[in-house]
Amino acid sequence: MYRHRIAACFAFLILVLLAAEAKDPPAQVIVWPSSGPPVLRFTLGKPKEIGSGGGTRTYTIDITAENQWGKRIARADFSLYLYDKNKVRIGDGYISISDVAPGGSIKFNADAQASGIPVSMDLSPRTLPSELQSFLPLKTISVTVNSVPQGADLKIDGVEAGITPKIIQVAPGKHILEFAKEGFKTGNYPLEITAEDTSGGSVSYELGTSAHDTVELRDGSVLSGDVESVSPTEVVVRIGGTLQHLSRNQVKRIALIERDAPSQ
Questions:
Q1: Which of 54, 80, 213, 229 is a good FRET partner for 28, with 20 to 30 A between their CA atoms?
Q2: pLDDT given at position 106
Q3: Which fold, 23-135?
Q4: Residue 110 to residues 34, 42, 50, 183, Cα–Cα distance (Å)
Q5: What is the pLDDT of residue 241?
Q6: How far is CA 140 from CA 82, 189, 198, 259, in A?
Q7: What span, in angstroms and rounded, lies between the C-alpha atoms of 96 and 85?
Q8: Which residues of the chain are under the pLDDT cut of 50?
Q9: Domain 141-206 has CATH 3.30.1360.120
């Protein structure tokens, strides 16, 4: 009888412990960076809701940061991202650590806002010591690229980027913008972005003279091609490799581009 009571109590205790574990999952551990020698080890407790309003919930999170690097960390800042059970990002926060000796650790709280119930978290560096700058996400600058006339095919460093006008994202450094539009000469534009530049700038490139002759007809349409001959009764234009014969009375105006004489 006594043994049965002990077994029943033990089973009840196991159930209580399992229920508590299910209610309060273990803290999440993030070792940063995710590859290579570890620098920081973060232990993040379960987010605790402390307020809500306007469809947004505010959470506080107990965090322990351990310096696993061989140098003192004067300061390091991270963005804190919160995800729901479907791995969809639903919120964010911000954490900062300072003056952490090698092998040392600090404990602090961080607040974050989310649109739902977070079940996992992640970190992304924002400010790091000079020796760790290579771990920062690659900075990109937003630039609006336009052309005169608009509607030109745009390439960035040889890669298709769309049709002008176009908002592009480029990293600091030197780049080549290439413009091409039917009926116009192609052109290149050197673009240099520095680390101090900010988003919001713009570039406008004029394609310049047409690459073909222009024949304006009396009905308002415009043909772009190479005028082969003009006679009192006929105008012959090569368009896309095909000769088109136009009545002289159809033509209102002809604009001829400057063309190099064929080599003898």
A1: 54
A2: 96
A3: Immunoglobulin-like (2.60.40)
A4: 21, 12, 12, 59
A5: 77
A6: 23, 19, 9, 42
A7: 26
A8: 20-22
A9: no
